[in-house]
C-alpha cells in the first residue's frame, strides 16, 4: 500500500552559524521517519551529474571487463550483477553494482586503461560525500548528547580498518517486461551502516520507505510504503542500524525498497549512487540504556549478515516444505 508522506528537508547552508537549528531538524527527522532530504550541501548539480556519467560509462563496459574486479565479500568492494538476495524476497535484486572503498582495495578498482578517469572522479566524489556526512553526523552526535566529534573519529577514512563505501548502482532496462510480485529492483531492507547518502536522477524513481521500526534487530515490516522522490541535487539520507543501536533505538533505521515499475510506467534503466557511512571495524558501538553492552562495528556488521543468512535459510526451508 502506497501512502504519500512529507519528508523533512535539512538545509546545511551557513552550517557553522546554524548548527543548533540543523541539529534540531535532524533529530526530528531521524526520530520520526529515519529518512530526510538534504539541500544546500555543497555538492553542485553538475558534480552529481558528472559522477552519474562516470557510473554510466562503467556499467556500459562489457561484463568481462567489469568482472576483472568482481565483488570481494570479505573486503566489501568490487562489481556484482544479479547477485544480491534479500531475506524479504528470496530472489536476486534486478540490478548490478560496483562498491568502492578507501583502504586496502586498490586491486578492486577498474584500471585507468579499462575505465579512464573512473577512479579519480569517484575518489573526488567520495571525499565530497565524506565531508557532507561528517557535518550531519556531528549534529546527530550533539542531538544524542555525545561530543560533537564523537562519530568523526569512528568513521576515519585514513585508518586501515575504514569501511566507508561508495556504491554505484544500475537497475536494468526492463521496458515491456512483467515480473512476478516477489521480484524487486531492490527488496525491502534496512542499511547496516550509520548513515546513508543516496543520489538518484530525476524521473528515475521507485524508492519507497516504510516507517515504524521499533528495534535495530527487528525484521518486522509494515504495509504502508511511501515514495521518496527528491528534486535534482537533493540528497536522500537515511538512518542506519549502527546509529539506531548507538541511540538506543531513538533514531529510526527503517525498511526501504526499490519497486519494479509496471508496464505503462517508466521502465528504463535507473542509476543511483549510495555513500554508506560504516564505522571503522575497531570502533565500539555502545548505547547508554537499552544497549549498554559494547560491540565492535566489525562484529556488528558480521552479526547483521549472519541474521540475514539465517533469514534466507529459513525462507528456503519454508519454500522446500510447501
UniProtKB/TrEMBL annotation:
Any coiled-coil regions, as ranges: none
Pfam families linked to this entry: 2OG-FeII_Oxy (PF03171), DIOX_N (PF14226)
Domain of life: Eukaryota
Domain Fe2OG dioxygenase per the UniProt entry, residue ranges: 162-279
Alphabetical UniProt keywords: Iron, Metal-binding, Oxidoreductase
InterPro entries: DIOX_N, IPNS-like_FE2OG_OXY, IPNS-like_sf, Iron_ascorbate_oxido_reductase, Oxoglu/Fe-dep_dioxygenase_dom
Protein name: Fe2OG dioxygenase domain-containing protein
Record has Oxidoreductase as a keyword: yes
Keyword Magnesium set for record: no
Family membership: Belongs to the iron/ascorbate-dependent oxidoreductase family.
Record GO terms (molecular function): metal ion binding; oxidoreductase activity
